[in-house]
């Protein structure tokens, strides 16, 4: 079942996640729920803390619509700074330019615990950086000026209030 997406600001989004040590059924279940949540929200990536689980695991979508999991990922290299327009499921309807890198090299485990190394560029490199940021306890708005961040914070408070009202109405 899809889970609710945690909206920024929330403590779970601003705390580093715990490394995954148990690759048993609970991790498989979490990955399924994350996939459903990402699909329902029409996202292209999702981190476990965005569904309220402080665990170092995220899903990253490929251009063909399939996705893969990154468990305990580490960013090994980043090259060629770029500025890219970015959004986030936890910061709905906000899009801002963010400093990122065109190319990255990451090391991560899959759901079975096998280690992989991946060199990525462009869209995939961008999603990897965004999701690993989440797992480190960072949201993209932290890369923006304090003025922009304050404006977004105000809009998120209004968004949360409207959402609560809507949910009450829906029962
Ligand atoms: Zn995000």
Describe what you observe in this structure.
There is one protein chain. The protein has 171 residues and is α+β, with helices and mostly antiparallel strands. It has a single domain, classed as Peptide Deformylase (Alpha-Beta Complex), CATH 3.90.45.10. Helices cover 32% and strands 33% of the residues. The chain is built from three helices and five strands; from the N terminus they run H-E-E-E-E-E-H-H. A five-stranded antiparallel β-sheet has the order 1-2-3-4-5. The longest helix has 25 residues. The radius of gyration is 16 Å and the shape is globular. 31% of the residues are buried. The model has no long low-confidence stretch (mean pLDDT 96).
C-alpha termini separation: 19 Å
Question: Bound small molecules, which ones?
Answer: zinc ion
Q: Can you tell me the overall shape?
A: globular
Major sheet: arrangement of strands: 1-2-3-4-5
User: Number of DSSP strands?
Assistant: 5
pLDDT < 50 runs, ≥5 residues:
none
Looking at the overall shape, the CATH architecture is Alpha-Beta Complex
List the helices and strands and how they pair.
Blueprint: H1 25-40, E1 45-47, E2 57-61, E3 67-88, E4 91-109, E5 115-121, H2 122-135, H3 146-170
Antiparallel strand pairs: 1-2, 2-3, 3-4, 4-5
Residues 88-90, 130, 134 line the site of zinc ion.
Summarize the structure.
This protein has 3 helices and 5 strands. The protein is α+β, with helices and mostly antiparallel strands and 171 residues long.
Key structural traits:
171 residues, alpha+beta, Peptide Deformylase, 5 strands, globular, binds zinc ion
């Amino acid at each position: 079942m899809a889970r609710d997406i945690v909206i920024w600001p929330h403590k779970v989004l601003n705390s580093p996640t715990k490394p995954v040590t148990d690759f048993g059924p609970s991790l498989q279940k979490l990955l399924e729920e994350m996939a459903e949540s990402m699909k329902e929200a029409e996202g292209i990536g999702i981190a476990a803390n965005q569904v309220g689980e402080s665990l170092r695991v995220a899903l990253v979508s490929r251009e063909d619509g399939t996705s893969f999991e990154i468990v305990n990922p580490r960013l090994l290299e980043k090259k060629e700074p770029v500025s890219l327009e970015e959004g986030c499921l936890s910061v709905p309807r906000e899009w801002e330019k963010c400093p990122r890198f065109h190319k990255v090299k990451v090391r991560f485990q899959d759901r079975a615990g096998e280690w992989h190394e991946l060199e990525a560029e462009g869209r995939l490199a961008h999603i990897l950086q965004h999701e690993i940021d989440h797992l480190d306890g960072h949201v993209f708005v932290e890369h923006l000026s304090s003025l922009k961040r304050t404006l977004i914070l105000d809009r998120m408070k209004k968004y949360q209030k409207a959402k609560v009202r809507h949910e009450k109405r829906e029962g």
